[in-house]
Amino acid sequence: MMPSAADCRALREQLSPFVDGELPASQRISVERHLASCPTCSSRVADLRAGSGLLRIGLELRVDEVDWRDFTKGVMARIAPAPVPFAERWRVSLRELFTYRRGMLATALAAGVAIIALAPVLLRSPAPNGYARQTMAVQSVSTNPDAHVAPVVMAGEHGNAIIWLVSHKHVLEGKAPYEESDGVDNGTSLPLKVDQERKKEGEL
Amino acid sequence: MPTDDLILVKRARDGDQRAFQTLVERYQRKVYSVALGMLRDREEARDVAQEAFAKVFKYLDHFKGDSSFYTWLYRITINIAIDILRRRGAAKGEHVELDENIQVDSAEANIGALGSRLGTNPQKSLLRKELAEKIEAALQEVPEKHRAILLLREIEGMSYEDLARTLDIPKGTVMSRLFHARAKVQKILSTYLDLDEAKSGLGGE
Amino acid sequence: MTRLGSRAAALLLFASAVALGAEPKVRINAEVILASNNGNTIDPPALARMKNQFSQKGFAFTSYRRLSSEKLSLKREPVELKLPNQRTATLRLDAIKADVATVRVDISDLSSTTLTMGKEGSLFQFAGDHDGGQLILKLSPDHGSQPRHTASGISRPAEAVARELVDDSEPVPVDR
Question: Are B46 and A13 a contacting pair at CB < 8 A?
């Protein structure tokens, strides 16, 4: 079923909410059906995703340049009435340590163990486990050129990251990305359709 | 997550500064990204982002807690940013609003090109630093209200419903503004990537 | 009291020994998930959150099934995770600097990703086709301390409309 240019025009504005997953089910299904046989609109969807990816990557690069601990301190400084100088804070912490943990320390002292040297260790967070940073961060991604995929890194909530591997082959060659098989409706998201086709070609 | 935000807000209201700091750490990167996308200047963006948190803290008592904390936070961020843009005298914002009704057919010149461009080895074709600058520049070409929606959607992944709430506009407006903002950015990025030569071979309309 | 004292001393010495440098390693959770359009199974139900996130990003998968889940302890020595699609995920700890762990994930013949671990944030790495769908390797933190927020799903509260919000933002400068 060849899609007409009129169909494409009518659908154009829906592609944006489609990519965002914000179309009601019935509309989403019509778009998916149209995409199944329309390379032009499929490419538009790929463009939308690529545009999103580039925008996010671009901004994330800038985010990585910032010293976030410093930023947080800056915010807290704006809201706190009188900032406590660092040396003063250090002294306070030691005092607290001796006040609240007195039981254990006093006992240790009684056992004759020198703990002063260990105080800095105690004041740091417990045993290093690699998780000093607040949020996970992707540093770099590279792909195998023979795989003909490009990584699209997407940031989610809670510091999540999705690394999608998008195949450009079908777009470059202008092939229809989807072919129904066994009457099973498999064709929805773009990566899925592409991989079905590549599987057919014996690539995977 | 939103429920946890509200728990932290409540604790912060009761004087728990550590709770507020947790909220800051949770949202600082994204708030900064949004501010940066709006203003382009990194120092200004940092300033606006910190100011947004400070304002939130100041008005914590007024936050009723029967809506999401983060829509409130972003609304404040966007307001401060737009305020600065207006004071800058960005009259561009006003005029370009008219764009909304103009057909975006010119974006059609390179269908599929952006998507296929991403298929080539990104390390070779895009200098990281250049990309950041080009994105920031492209964003400046988008009218401020469209820019705000685009940023909140892409950075925070806000649902259309939340976008409507944050910006106090109907959902239909959210949809059309996103559509136009994306078309504009795509057009600009395609130009930057010199895709007129690298046409993918797919026919235009 | 002396016994308590010596135990406390032992604890302190132990803590410092650990702090001052046992073999570097980082704990991590690795799950292999199959995302596809074959049916609507979300198994385990906790994956509904993942489905939500993914659909927000434009992925229209209808089914998410976790195929495996394990806790790993990564060291410099690479750890191999066989994936059901004949590929292998190789994970190793690149370095720990200032208590920040850098981890490297290679998916055979496909991609190589480097990430720094944090208290929150998971990596969802696409790892090729399988069984009519896509394999996704999810790497999550396992830092042993309490998670800062509960895993109770990410759905936005379906609250009533914005009038309240307008009131909330009253003290804030509104658009002039």
Answer: no
The string of pLDDT tens digits covering residues A18-53 is: 999 999 999 999 999 999 999 889 888 888 888 888
Pick the CATH number of B1-89 from 1.10.1740.10, 1.10.287.130, 3.20.20.70, 3.30.1490.20: 1.10.1740.10
Instruction: Tally Cβ neighbours within 10 Å of residue C48.
Output: 14
Inter-residue contact A22 to C58 (CB < 8 Å): no
Residue with tokens 């989610």: A156
CA distance C94 to chain B (A): 21
pLDDT of residue B147: 94
Q: Which domain holds residue A103?
A: 84-123
Q: Measure in Å the smallest separation between the Cα of C167 and chain A Cα atoms.
A: 23
Q: Is A154 on the interface with C (CB under 8 A)?
A: yes
Residue of B53, B119, B176 lying closest to A166 (CB–CB): B119
Most C CBs within 10 Å, among A34, A131, A164, A167, to test the C interface: A131
User: pLDDT by residue (tens digit) across B21-60?
Assistant: 999 999 999 999 999 999 989 999 999 999 999 999 989 8
- Residue B202 in this model has a pLDDT that exceeds 60: no
What is the value of pTM for the model shown?
0.48
List strands edge to edge, sheet with A137-143: A137-143, C111-116, C100-107, C88-97, C79-82
Per DSSP, the residues of C48-104 read HHHHHHHHHTT----EEEEEEEEEEEE-SS-EEEE-TTS-EEEEEEEEEETTEEEEE
pLDDT band, very low/low/confident/very high, at C167 (cuts 50, 70, 90): very low
The verdict on a CB contact (< 8 Å) between C16 and A113 is no
A2 within domain boundaries: no
A110 interfacial to chain C (CB closer than 8 Å) = yes
Q: Domain spans of chain C?
A: 23-144
Evaluate whether residue A1 is within a structural domain: no
Q: Answer yes or no: do A56 and A146 share one domain.
A: yes
Give me the CATH code for the B91-205 domain, please: 1.10.10.10
Considering only CA atoms, give the Rg of chain B. Answer: 19
Enumerate neighbours of A (3 or more CB pairs within 8 A).
B, C
The ipTM (two decimal places) reads 0.79
Strands C100-107 and C111-116: antiparallel
C15 vs A: CB within 8 A: yes
Contact partners for chain B, using 3 or more CB pairs closer than 8 A, are A, C
Cβ-based neighbour number of residue A181 at 10 Å: 11
Contact C132 A122 (CB under 8 A): no
Distance from CA of A4 to the nearest CA of C (A): 24
Please report, rounded to a whole number, the percentage of residues in chain B having pLDDT higher than 90.
45
